[in-house]
Records
---
Amino acid sequence: MSDAPVKPTFDYLRRQRHMLVDMHVPDFEAGFLKNLDPARMAELYVKAGVDSVMFYCNSMTGLALWPTNAGRAHPNLAGRDIVAESVAELHQRGLAACAYYSVNFNNEAYNEHAGWRIVNANPAGPWGENSRSGVCCPSNREFHAHAAVQVEELVRGYDVDALFLDMMFWPDVCLCPSCGARLADEEGIELPETIDFFSPDFTRFLAARERWLAEELRTIKATARKHRDIPVFANCSMLTASWVVGVNQDFLAECDVIGGDVIVGLPLFVPGAAAAAPAVFQYMHTATGYTTAAAQTTTADELLAEAMVATAFGGQFMAIDAVKPDGSVQAETFDVYAEVFDRMRPYEAYLGGAPLADVAVYWSLQAQVDFDLNGKPVAGSPPFMAPTPHGRSALGAVEALRSAHHPVGAIPRAELSRHDRYPVIVLPNVLRMDDEEIAAFRAYVERGGRLYASGYTSLVSTDGTKHDDFALADVFGCHFEDKEPGASYIRPVTPEAAAAIAPGELVGHGTGNVLKRAMWALTLRVTADEEVTTVATHTRRYGDGRPTKTSGWAAIFSDPPYEDTDRPVVVRNRYGAGEVVYSACDIESTIPLIRGSERLFVHLVRTLLDRPGAVEADTHPDVWVVAFDEPEERRRRISLLHRRHDEPPLPVPPFTLRLTAPEGARFTSLRRLPDGEAIPFTVEDDGRMAATVEDLHVFQMLAAEYE
C-alpha cells in the first residue's frame, strides 16, 4: 500500500458556490441536535445550487460529531457518525466536502485539561470568565498534539476534500504557565506586565506569540497532509485585527485559501486576499443571523450584494446559515440561496486574470500595534478586534480610493518583490518596519516608483528601536522632531491642494464636532529639506489644554482653528527617478468621517499617479469598480458592483466608464457578459475607450477586447 497522501474526490479549489451551516450546539438538553439529518441537508444544498459544502466535524463546544478516540463525541447523537453520513450524502450528489474543525476554542478540552487553558490578561473581557467559550492556549504543545490526533482521525478516516481550521488566534494576551515556560526557555525573558512597543523584550514576546500560533497551524496542517492531499486553511478574518490575535505572515503562508467570516475590515481584506496569490480567495458572509438568531434571514437582494463581492474579485463565495438547537434548519430560506447562487453561476466561466490596480495600499501585520498603549498594564490590553492606527489608516485609504473608483490593491509584506507592478504605493502610518521593508521601498522609489507615506512610517523598527529620525527621511525629504499635542488643522498652500478641498480652507484632523470626534488622529512635527515642496502646513486649534466651563475653548461644540504656522505637514520630494508625498498627519485614518481628509488624500495620490488610470468611472461612490487583465484572451474584464442594501436596490444613473488599453494595444470591442451584448464605445484623443454604462442595479461584468 502506497504511503502517498490520498487525492481528494473533488477539486475544492475550483468550486465557487459554497455553504456552511453553523452548528455550535451543546449537549445540555436531550433534544439538542435530535433532528440533525445529513441526507436532508444534502437535498437542501442541491436545492440551493451550491457546489461545495463546509460541514461541522466538531464545534466550539469541543464535542465531536464522529466517534472519536480522542475527546468526547456529542452524546445526543447516540453513536451516530455524522461525519461519515455527511461525506457520503454530499459526494453522492456531486458536492465537494470540506471538514470544519474548531481548534483553540474548545470547551471540552478546556474543561477536561486545566493546564491547556488560556489565562486571560483581561479575565472580565469578552472571552474571559463570563464567556460561553473555553479557549485553549496556542502555545501549549500538549493541546497541539490533541488537536492533531483528532484531525488525523478525520483526514485518515473520511474522504474529505478540504480542511478548514477555525478559531486559531489569541482573543486576549495569555499569561498561562505554558506561555511563561516557553518564553523563558526560548527567549530568556519573563511574561511582561507592561505594554511597551519600544522595548526589545516586549517585542520579542510579541514575536514569540506569533511564532507559536504559526507553529500550531503548521503542525496540524502537516498531520493532515501526511494522509490526504487536500487544501488546508485557517479562518483569516483576523487579518485586520490588532496585535493581540498573534496572526502574522508565516501563519497566512500556511493557508491554501485566504478567507474568513465576520470581516470587519472588508474594504481592506477583500482586495488584499484577492491579491494573495497563489492562495484562493474565499469570502464568507452570513445568510442568517448566526451570530444572533438562526431565524433572522437575509433577503436575496442583500445576500446578492455580498455574493457578488466575491465574484467581482474572482473569488469563492460562502453563505453561512445556522441550525436550530434541534439540528433542523428553516428549509424555505434555501430558496433565497438558490436565487443568489443562480445569479452567480453565469459569471463563473469568466473569472481569472491578473488584478489591475493603479494604487496599492500596504498593510502590515507587524504594524498592527498602538504606541499610545505604551506604559499601560498588559491587563489593560485592548479587545482583539480594537482598531489600530495602521489598520484605520489602511482601511481609510482603500475606502477613499475605492469610492473614487481607482482600482486598488491591498498588498501584504509577502508582496515586497512585486512592488514595481504598481505605479503608486501607499504606506498608511506603518508603525513598525524592518530593514528589508525599508530597503524595498527605498529601491522602489529610486527606480521610479511613486510613494505616499504618513505618520510614523519608518520611525520604529520591529525590534522596538525608535530611531531619532525616519529611516526613510532622505526619501521623504523631511525629518522627525516630535509628536504634536492634541488635534490639528491642515492648511493646503499649493493652489492644486487648496482647490481639492474647496470651498473649505482647512482640513480638521481630530477636530470634529465634539459629539462626533476622531481623537485618534495623529500629527507629527517635522522639518523639511530645502529642495522639497511644502503642500500643506499646520494650523493650531484653539485651546490645546484641558478646557473648563469658563476657559480653554472658543466654540462649545467644536475646536476652531486659531493660529496658522509655517510648519510643514504635507511635503513632496523627488528621490532617484521617483517621487514621494509624505504627510505628518495620517489624514487617511479619518476617512470617511471627515470628507475634507478624503478629498485631500485622493488628490495627493492622483498627483502621484500623474496619468490616466487603468479604469475610471464618474459614478456614485457606492459603485465598486474592479478590473482584471487577461492577456491570453486579449481582453480586460471589468466588474461593476453596486454594494447597497436598498429594498429593492435602486438603479444607478447612466455613467461614463473609461478604460486604458495595455501599452501598444488598442480596444476593438466592448461586450456585456455573459450574454455578449455589444456596447457602443468611442476612442478619445488620448486613446482611451469611453462608454456609457446603463441599467446597473447590483452587478455587471464587461469585457473589453484589444489587439
Note: The radius of gyration is 26 Å.
---
Amino acid sequence: MKNIRTRRQFLTTTMKMVGSIPAFPLATGLVGSIATMNALAAPNIPPANLLDVKKFGAKGDGKNLDSPAINAAIDAAAEVGGGTVYFPPGTYLSASIHLKNNITLYLEAGATIEAVDWKVMPYDFPEPNQEGGNYQDYGHSHWKNSLIWGIGLENIAIVGNGLIHGKGLNSGYNRATGRYRDTADEPGEGNKAIALRECRNVTLRDFSILHGGHFGILATGINNLFIDNVKIDTNRDGMDIDACSNVRITHCSVNSPWDDGICLKASYGLGKVWPCENVTISDCFVSGNFDEGTLLDGTFKRSKPEYKSGKVGRIKLGTESNGDFRNITITNCIFDECRGLAIESVDGSHIEDIAISNITMRNVANDPIFIRLGARLRGPNKPPIGSIKRINISNVVVSGAEGNYAMTISGLPDHPVEDIRITNLRIESQGGGSKAASALVPPENPAKYPEPGMFGKVPAYGFYFRHVKAIEMDQVKISYIKSEERTAMVLEDVSDAYFTALNIERGQDEAVYFDLRGVSDFSVKNSRDIKDQQVKSFVKSLKI
C-alpha cells in the first residue's frame, strides 16, 4: 500500500508540473508550444530555432508555389548557424529546395512536399559533370535537378511523419516500351526526390516518399548516413547509396516495381574512384509487385489491369562498380514478389567481406541469389577486372522461386569468384525444367550488363557455379513444386568445393544431384541419399 501511495503522489506531482509549463510565445518564424513539444519528443529535433515555413509565406494549399518561402526559411536558419525548418500539415507545392549546413527539415504528420510540374516552375539545372558523367547513366551524375538537394554539407536531416510526393518528377522510364531514358532531361526537369552529394552526418528518418522519379534517394559520397523507418513507394529506384561510407539503413520499406529497391553502388559519378564501405542494411522490406501507392496506404494491391511490373524491387550491390565494396552486412530482411539478392562487379571493383543472414524471399522473379564477376569495364582507361571474395550467406528461406532460374555464382575464366560460404538455406523452386536443359552450356557474356537471365536458361534448378574457387555449403535443403528433370547442381570450372549435410530433391527421369564439368578438389559428405565422395584431381565430366 505504501508503494502504491508513493507512486500516486509521484504521478500527481508530475502532472501538476507538466500542467504548469507555459506555452512558448509565438514569434516571427517560430511555431508555438505544440510544435515545440513535438520537437522535444522527437530525437534530434532541438527545442529552439524552429522556423515555420508558413511564417515565411508558404501557403500549404497545394495550389500556390511554396519553394521560395521554404528556401527563405532555410536561409534564415542558416544565417544563425542552423535550425529546424518546420512544415505543419498541408500540401507544399515545390520546385528545388536547397539544403544548407546544420539544417533539419521536419515534416509534421499531414505535411506533404509535392513536386511541381517542371513546366509550371523549372527545377534547378543539372550541374556540369564532364569528368564523372561519361561512365554511368545520366541520373547518377547530377544532383541539382532534384526536388530536395544538398552538396558539400554537414549535419543535415529530413525527419518527421510527413510525405514527399514526387508527382512532377520524371523517372526516365517508359512503361509501354520497358525502356529507360538515361540521357539528359529537358532543361528544368526534375528527376529525383532527394539528392545528396559529398555530405557528412546525414539523417533521414520516419517520412515517406511516393513516386520518387529516377531516384527516391540518391546519396553519393556521403560519410555517416543514417536512414531509418523510411517508406518508399515509387516508380523507379527506391534508394541508391553510391560511394558512401559508414551507412546504416534500418527498418525501411520499399516498393519499386520498375527498378531496384535498395541499391549500393560505387560509380565514377564524382570523377574519381570511391569505395562503398562499412554499410549495414537491416530489418528492411523490399517488394516489386504492388500497385504504386498501396504500400503507403497499407492496401498492398496488385489489381490494376494496366499495371506492368518488372518485379524488380530487390537489394543489389552494383551494377556501377568502379570503386570497391567492402565490410557490408545485410540482415533480417524480407523480399516479397521481387528479384533476389544481387552482387555484381563488372567495372573493376573488388567486392569483399560481405555477410548476408536471416533473409526470407517469397515468389522471387529470378535468381534468389545472383553473384557475378564480369568485364564490362566501364571507366577511365578501361580498368582491370575486379574480384569477389569472402562472401558469407546464412539462414535464407526461399519459396516459390521462378523455375527457369537457379542460384547463380559466376566469375570469368582465370578470374574466379572466391571464398563463398553458404549455410542453413531452404530453397523451394517452382520447378518445371526439362531434361534437355541439363545439357546446356550457357554463354560467357563477359561484357554484358549483369542481370539474372543474362546466360539464358541454366542447366541446374538449384545452384549453377561457374569459375568459382573455394565454395563451402552446409545444411542446405533444395526442392521443387512442378516436375523437375534438370540437375540439382552444376559446377563448371570450379576448384575446392566442399558440401556437407545436403538434403536435395533429385530431379525426375534419372536426373542427378551433381554435374561436375572441369572440377578439382571436390567433396560431398553426410548428405541425404548422396554417397560420400571425394574428387581430388581434375575431372572433365562426372555426374553424381
Note: Helices lie at 2-19, 33-41, 67-79.
---
Amino acid sequence: MTKSKEFIRINRELSWLSFNERVLQEAENPKVPLAERIKFLAIFSSNMDEFFRVRVASARRLLKYQKKQKLKEAKETAELVNTIQKRVVNQQDRFNTIFEEQIIPGLAERNIYLINEHQLTHTQQVRVKEFYKTEVLSYLFPVMLDHLREFPFLRDKSIYLAVKMAKEDGSMKPKYALVEVPSEVLNRFYILPSLDQNTYIMLLDDVIRISLPDIFSFFDFDHFEAYTIKLTRDAELDIDNDLPGSLITKIEKSLKERPKGAPVRFIYDEEMPDDMLNFIIKKAGVSKESIIPGGRYHNFKDFFDFPKVGGDDFWYDTIRPLPIARFENTRVLVDEIRKKDVLLHHPYQSFDYVIRMLREAAIDPSVYAIKITLYRVARHSNIVNSLINAVKNGKEVTVVMELQARFDEESNLYWTNKLQDAGANVIFGVPNYKIHAKCCVIFRRENNKTVHYAHLSTGNYNGRTARLYSDSALFTADPRITKDVVKVFSFIKNFPRIQYKFSHLLVSPFYMKQEFLKLIDNEIKNAVRSKPAYIYAKMNSLVDEQMIDKLYEASNAGVKIRLVIRGICCLVPGIKKQSENIEIISIVDKFLEHSRFFIFCHGGSEKYYMSSADWMTRNLDRRIETAFPIYDPDLQKELMELFEIQWSDNVKARIIGKEQLNKMKPPGLPSVRTQFETYDYLRLKSG
C-alpha cells in the first residue's frame, strides 16, 4: 500500500491481482457447475497473460529506466515487481491445484476422463497415433537445439514442448528439441472414439508427446521426455506520433513488431528436470525474474473451447433474452423512442435491438445520416454490416474507429478497410487520446426538421461480448441529450483545436472529472449542513487519485458511500478518519459485470449518470469518454432498484477491504444473487 498526503491507497497492480483471485475463487467453488469452473480457469489464464503483457511489462520498463537514471524510486518499483512475482507464483500454484485435484477428478465423477499419453489402452493408442498421422503431423516443425548458436524465437501466446531424447542405457549423449503445439490451427482437445459410456478427452499436447518416437525416428533414442514452456512478451505498441505518416501505417508497422516484444514471463512445467530447465534458460537468455513454475499444461485460454460434454448440470442455464414490450409491439423503433426513453440491459435483454435500430435506419427514407463510435468490433459484426448497408442505401455514414484499442487493432483495421471501401467516412483516433465513448446518433427528417435519435452505452458495439458482459444503454430522442451527442462527434473531429461546451453530457478529457468532483463536493456541503448526502456508484475500476481523495473527503464529511467495483480498487474502505462511511463490494459471476452508473443524492433530487468510463486517470484525463444523464423518472427508479439488487447480493459479492482477503459477503435469507435477481426483475417489468 502507498500513502499520499494522509490517505492510504492500495497499489493498482496488487489490487488487480486481488481481482484475478476472485476469478480463481469461482473456479474453486464446488457450487459452480464444472464446465463453468473450467471457463473461470480460462478467464484467469487469459487475464494473467494480458497482465504480464501490459502491466508487468510497463513496471519492468519503468524499473529499467529508473535504475539507468539512478532514481531513488527504483527501490520501490523493484519491491513492487518482486511482490507481484511472489503473488503470481502463489496464484499459479493454487491454479494448478484446482485443476489437478478438483477439475480432473470432478470430470471423472461424471465419466469424463481427461487422459494423457500414459493412460491410453492399446486400442486408444492406435486411434491417437492414427489421428496424429492424418491430422497433426503436417503442422509439426521440430527444431534441434543442441548446436544452434541462437535459441529459436519463441512466439508470444504460443506453447512449446521442450523435448529431451536419451538412451535408456546411457550409451548416447542426450539431445534437446523444441516442438510448437499447433493450437492456433488445430483444436486443443481431441475426443477419442469410445466403445463404452465414458467420454475420453486428450489434449493436443499429449497427442504429440505419445508421437515423439515417430517425430524423432531419425535418431536412435528410446527415451523421450517433453515439458510445456511458454513465453509472454511485452505487448506495448510503439507508435511515434512525431513522425510523418498515417495512423493506419504506423499501427500496421507496430503490429508487425509486437510479437518481437521483450520477454516478461517464462512459465514452465515444474516437473522439468533441473538440467533441462537450466539448458533452456541459458540458451533462451531468459532473465531470472521472468521465470514462473507451472503445471503440465499452459495456455488455459484454450479451455474456453472445452468440448461441450456433460449433462445439464455441467453448465449454467442459457438465459433467453427478455423482450422489451414497447419495441416488440411497434413497427418502427424510433416511434417508441420518440415517445419515451428506453433503457436496455444486456445480456438480459437482446443486443439485437441495437442492430434493429441501425437496420431500420439503413432503409428508412427519412434518415439521411448516421454517426457512431466503434472501439471493439466483433469478428463477424452485424453492426458494421448494417452501417455498410446504410451507405448502399445512400445514407451519409460517419464512423469514429479507434485503431488503438489494445489487442483489437487488427480487427479494427480490417473493418476500417471494409467501411472505407463501401464509402463510409471513417475518422480515426487522435494522437495520445483513445476514443472510448460508446454513442450513436441517427439524423432523421420529420416535418421539415431534423430530429436526432441517440443510443448511448456503457459497453461496446459488439454482439459477441453483449452475450457475455452485463452492460446498459439508453435509447433517447430527448433533444437535451441528443444535441450534446451530435456535438461529441464535432468535438472528436476537431479535437483538440476547438473545445465545445456540453450542457448535459459529461465528456472527458476536459469536463467529466471536474463535473464528478463538483457533484461530490455538493454531497459534502449537504452532509456538513446535516442534509441527506450519499453516493452510490458501480464501475469496473477505481484508480484516479483525485477521485479517491475526494471520496475520502466526502466520507470524513459524513457522506454515505456505497461502491460496487468489479476489478481494480485503490481506495481502502473502513479506515478510521479516512473512509469510515465507505463500503465496497465486488461481484464476480456468470457474466462479466461491465456497466457503470453513478447516483448522487443531490439534496433529495437525485442525479443519475451512466457512462463508458471508469474512475481511472486514463478514462478521465487521457480518453474521450461520455457520461450521460438519466432524466426519465421511471428509468431513474429502475436504475436505483438495479443498484439495490447489486448491493443486496449475498451469494457472489465479495467485501473489498484493506487486507484484500476477498471474503464473501455473509449469506442471508433470502439469498440474493445479482444476475439472477436482475433477470427476474426485468422479466417482471417486461411482463
Note: The chain has three domains: 2-314, 325-493, 506-686.
